[in-house]
Design brief:
alpha/beta, seven-stranded mixed β-sheet, globular, binds pyridoxal-5'-phosphate
């Protein structure tokens, strides 16, 4: 019998097709614009210079000569690719050095390097958890965490973003689920740049006997005196069981890592399918990451961490003064605030976000546009982010552009959300 449904039908009729077609027609699609220069504070895109406020190159190390040399040396010594899995022919001394240095930096027994951050999450969660277990996630956790949970077929119990009362309820319910329980949160949430209340989360996990994993993608090489991430900054390194990070942000490369107890890392090394059944990262990516880790761990690292956060505060103040609703830094119970390199502007409406993105782009500033499902429905953001290497003149120039664009945008499209 011939099937009546074509699996390709959904590529024509999916719920975003009309929206995408309309955005293309009006030329406001904020995605897939082509970069024709290196990822620096000012880039060339589609024939013009744009101030880059839409990158995760937080320390600005992608063009650093030591990092470039790390990549070039690895390329010349080990060639363009390793053409095989870490398990078989794809492990080089640079992987072992990198794993040892990251474990030392993060203060864990061991670390395991994956080819991407996405694979580090999927390969950890999809292997460590099984159908009998329960995994509790923050609703704003990164998609790769959710993908790992889905792969594992563990019982998924999401809780409302950063709501400790909901987490407690989920932990209480999970106690009756009969399997092991793992809580997974982002240390710094990727879209809003806010920080998880890790001390309280760790206390709750301890009270209920659950394990805790923290994704430090946006925090490694940024937060804490050593730059070891949110767990270091908030003093909970000893209470967190597993810490994941990527190399595609502060570390100016591509790849991912899971750091934690030796027995868990050994288990993943031998059983994680997204680790075993994929090719090892190209040597240049590993060499660049190792060079960037060494810069972070030197005295210069502290200067870079301070500079990127200072730039974030500067941009935050400048945009707030213009009357944008900028997501506030996370406030701790002692009244102090945690600034991160992510400085998001709340827009709300998807179309307004797209039109404002386009006006900024034409005026010479590139930012990222986050709409549902990256953020909750009607919660569109223009996600700006800074580098340690943005100088004040460039940031001032971008703030002037925001001011001019906001004025003309509001005249044409009505008011944007005011500061809270
Ligand atoms: C919080 C978080 N976790 C994991 C990842 C995946 O990392 P990668 O891009 O290195 O695969 C990202 C990347 O955007 C992220 O923001």
């Amino acid at each position: 019998m011939h099937t009546s449904i074509d699996v390709f039908a959904k590529v024509r009729d999916h719920d975003r097709a009309a929206l995408l077609a309309a955005a293309r027609e009006t030329e406001v699609l904020p995605y897939f614009h082509v970069l024709t220069s290196a990822a620096m504070p000012v880039v060339e895109m589609e024939g013009a210079e744009r101030i880059m406020l839409g990158s995760n190159n937080y320390l600005g190390l992608t063009g650093d000569e030591r990092v470039v040399k790390g990549a070039a040396d690895a390329l010349h010594r080990f060639g363009t690719g390793l053409t095989g899995s870490r398990l078989l022919n794809g492990t080089i001394p640079l992987h072992l050095e990198l794993e040892r240095e990251i474990a030392e930096w993060m203060g864990t027994e061991e670390a395991l390097v994956f080819s991407t951050g996405h694979q580090a999450n999927v390969g950890t969660l999809g292997t460590l958890l099984g159908p009998a277990d329960t995994v509790i996630v923050d609703s704003a956790d990164h998609a790769s965490i959710l993908d790992g949970c889905l792969l594992s077929r563990a019982k998924l119990r999401p809780f409302r973003h950063n709501r400790l009362d909901k987490l407690e309820k989920a932990l209480d319910r999970a106690a009756g689920d009969s399997g092991g329980v793992l809580v997974v949160v982002d240390g710094v949430f990727s879209m809003e740049g806010d920080v998880a209340p890790l001390p309280e989360i760790a206390d709750l996990c301890a009270r209920f006997g659950a394990r805790l994993m923290v994704d430090e993608a946006h925090a490694l090489g940024v937060l804490g005196a050593r730059g070891a991430g949110t767990c270091e900054l908030l003093g909970v390194e000893d209470q967190v069981d597993l810490r994941m990070a990527t190399f595609s942000k502060s570390l100016a490369s591509c790849g991912g890592v899971i750091a934690g107890p030796a027995e868990v890392i050994e288990f993943l090394r031998l059983s994680s399918r997204p680790f075993i059944f994929t090719a090892s990262a190209v040597p240049a990516a590993v060499g660049a990451t190792l060079a960037a880790v060494r810069i972070c761990r030197s005295a210069e690292g502290r200067e870079l961490f301070a500079r990127v956060l200072d730039n974030a505060s500067y941009l935050h103040a400048g945009l707030s003064q213009l009357g944008f609703r900028v997501v506030k830094p996370t406030r701790l119970s002692d009244g102090s605030e945690i600034v991160t390199p992510v400085v998001p502007i709340v827009i709300g409406d998807d179309w307004k976000a797209a039109f404002l993105w386009k006006a900024l782009y034409e005026a010479g500033v590139f930012v990222n546009t986050a709409i549902h499902p990256a953020v909750p429905p009607a919660g569109a953001l223009l996600r700006t982010s800074v580098m340690a290497t943005h100088d004040r003149q460039t940031l001032d120039q971008s703030i002037e552009i925001f001011a001019a664009v906001k004025r003309s945008f509001e005249t044409e499209h009505g008011p944007l959300p005011p500061p809270e």
